[in-house]
Write a structure and sequence with these properties.
It is a single chain. The chain is an alpha/beta fold and 418 residues long. The chain has a domain at 95-118 and 224-394: 3-Layer(aba) Sandwich (Rossmann fold). The protein contains 15 helices and 13 strands. A six-stranded mixed beta sheet has the order 4-5-13-10-11-12, with helices on both faces. A four-stranded parallel beta sheet has the order 8-7-6-9, with helices on both faces. It has a three-stranded antiparallel beta sheet with strand order 2-1-3. β7 (165-171), α6 and β8 (188-192) form a beta-alpha-beta unit. α4 packs parallel to α5. The longest helix is centred in the middle third of the chain and has 15 residues, at 196-210. It binds pyridoxal-5'-phosphate.
Length: 418
């Protein structure tokens, strides 16, 4: 038996169909089974597969007969040896319908894909599970990254499980719970008096003296492959169809790029017809992709003085900017920014309406959906998926002020709130 609950998905008899890595800017090919960071032109590398052979080896019925979870999609992933996989139980995440929002807006279908159910409480587990498996497969002993919190937590956990040393650098205003979680899960972690790009520079500079491999967002090819399982899972849950519109809280963009990539892979093998519109959601305090989308630019300018309570999407400079913009434009989607006030309003509304706690970034997609409806960018008849990428339990919550004196007579009208 290999590892935790989905061990029956972690078997040796599922081959990988990787053929090569490809530079996302020039299309140049790179060898797949060696440690690779960025391409020679400094751009992200994408994993390419022999999709024809994949489709000959696997069909949707066979897939449906497997246990659920990330590792059921092995043929779409780059790991060659089952023994490389470290698993903490990467469960399939549920689609949770927001009836309250549907009633308020007159919409026909609004669902949240609740990624907060994954190990370490965020969808970063998907990408990191793949990055760590590939690091193990390729013999890496030290990994490092800059993080706003959730990626570092996942790296710490998967690194510890794999027996790989991890080094994590966080901006000093990273939520305290994240920093402590990273430390408790076995990484060496530092608060840095700067932003995520300052942390990124430290990781890049340390590669020589520390001998670590840099697993920053999109600086290695495999986190995207892990994140693309969101797209696989989503269309499988929709009966091998895509929803009409996906609202995605966009930071470094791994998920947006990964889903768009796998939708094309699925289309190519005939498992998916129409593709969804992709909406990149950012916060008004850090919206480089929105600004580039509005001006028609191919690349985004760095954002000065980035600030938003949604720390997971506070990414002022993203190396995959052109890939995100490409996905948004090709899909005939759009990019949209919401204020922190709107984020808080959705964060307070949705749990009361529908019992689902959202992280700030997830709440941003809900706020963006409301704004897009108002602006006529989406229609009430559209089937909409909002991504809640982390558990709301990992974030500070508003204070609760009610105290009751059990020695005194109880004022029931105060308790009833009348
Ligand atoms: C990392 C993160 C994001 C942004 O995801 P990307 O795929 O890197 O754009 C959004 N929400 C949360 C909670 C995150 O941790």
């Amino acid at each position: 038996m290999s590892d935790v609950t989905d061990f029956s998905n972690i078997t040796e008899d599922r081959p990988s169909f990787v053929t090569h890595l490809e530079c996302s800017a020039t299309g140049d090919h790179y060898e797949p089974d060696f440690l690779q960071g960025l391409s020679d032109t400094g751009k992200p590398l994408l994993v390419r597969y022999d999709l024809e052979a994949l489709a000959a080896a696997l069909d949707r019925e066979k897939l449906a007969s497997r246990p659920s979870g990330l590792w059921r999609y092995r043929e779409f992933l780059p790991v060659r040896r089952a023994s490389s996989i470290v698993s903490l139980g990467e469960t399939a995440t549920p689609l949770v319908r927001l009836k309250g929002t549907e009633v308020r807006t007159g919409s026909s279908l609004v669902v949240v894909k609740d990624e907060g159910r994954l190990p370490t409480g965020s969808f970063k587990a998907r990408g990191i599970a793949l990055a760590v498996a590939m690091a193990k497969e390729l013999g890496v002993e030290r990994l490092a990254m800059p993080t706003n919190g959730n990626a570092g937590a996942a790296l710490a956990a998967y690194g510890s499980r794999a027996g790989i040393d991890t080094f994590v650098f966080c901006p000093e205003d990273t939520p305290e719970v994240n920093v402590r979680e990273i430390a408790l899960q076995g990484a060496r972690v530092w608060r840095v008096n700067g932003l995520i790009n300052d942390c990124g520079r430290i990781v890049a500079e340390g590669a020589g003296p520390m001998g670590w491999f840099d697993v920053s967002t999109l600086k290695e090819p495999y986190r995207i492959e892990g994140k693309k399982t969101m797209g696989l899972e989503l269309v499988e849950q929709f009966g091998w169809q895509a929803p009409d519109v996906i609202f995605y809280p966009t930071g470094g963009g791994t998920g947006l790029i990964g889903m768009w990539k796998v939708f094309h892979e699925l289309k190519e093998i005939g498992w998916l017809g129409d593709l969804p519109r992709m909406v990149a959601v950012q916060a008004t305090g850090c919206a480089p992709i929105v600004r580039a989308w509005e001006t028609g630019a191919e690349h985004a300018e760095g954002w000065e003085n980035a600030s938003t309570l949604a720390s997971g999407i506070r990414v002022p400079v993203a190396i995959g900017d052109f890939l995100m913009l490409r996905a948004v434009r090709e899909s005939e989607g759009f990019a949209m920014a919401v204020t922190d006030e709107e984020i808080v309003a959705s964060q307070e509304q949705v749990p009361v309406d529908d019992g689902l706690l959202l992280c700030p970034e997830g709440a941003a997609t809900h706020a963006a959906y409301l704004q897009a409806l108002e602006a006529g960018l989406v229609d009430t008849s559209d089937r909409v998926v909002l991504f809640n990428c982390g558990s709301g339990l990992k974030y500070p919550m508003p204070p609760m002020e009610a105290n009751l004196d059990c020695q005194a007579p109880i004022d029931w009208s105060a308790i009833a709130g009348v």
